[in-house]
User: Fold this.
Amino acid sequence: MTPAFALTLAVLGFAGAFVAGLIGVGGAIVMIPLLFYVPPLLAVGSLDIKMVAGVTMAQVLAAALMGTRTHWQGAMIHRRLALWGGAAMALGSLAGAVGSRHVGGRVLLLVFALMATAALLLMFVKPTDARRGMSPDAIPFSRAAAVGFPGGIGVLSGLVGAGGAFLLLPVLVGVMQVPVRVGIGTSLAITGAGALAGFVGKLSTGQVPLVAAAAVVAGSLPGARLGALVSLRAPVGVLRAVLWALILLAALRVWADVLFH
Assistant:
């Protein structure tokens, strides 16, 4: 790997992790398109989609853990929901990650495109106001939903190398009626558990290029911390708008690749 390629990966890792900490996603909604399309455009190197999936899982793990730490300090995590959802997502992500070695690259792109489309549709569901101001741990939730949604998202996330928070966060806010700020912190905590299992699954099956992953993670750590700090101070409306715009752009770009290449 050339120094220019390593530097490019580190910068992309910083950008993806900043977004992760800012809007409560693991960063895959940004990292998968960035890692797949940007290095070839800059003529510094390239990663195929399976390598991108492995590197992204490592980045998501680093960014989610750093973002969770900051949001935990800000008391914006529903701990019981994170525990149930994190366990379910970890199991699903591990299964998806191990199984992904038998899935073709085009299918992985299609799965990611479908996940982004589902997340985009869920963003049109209006968030609840009724629970705003409640202590995070006092917010009621269904255990079946806390296991079912993260578990299913975990399987898909493990396949494509995503943390899945870009889909999980709209589910928490739009379906499970968790307030946006609590949803951001909780989704990062759940995603961290899922990403850890997914990373172990991909690493054990030889799907993680270690040098590329190390370069991306090196940029991710400061990016996630900075994004989480900004998130605690940014208006909720701005955070939702940024998430919506990123999901839309990623969905359009990946669908174009699936349909026309």
The chain has one domain: 3-260. The longest helix spans residues 49-73.
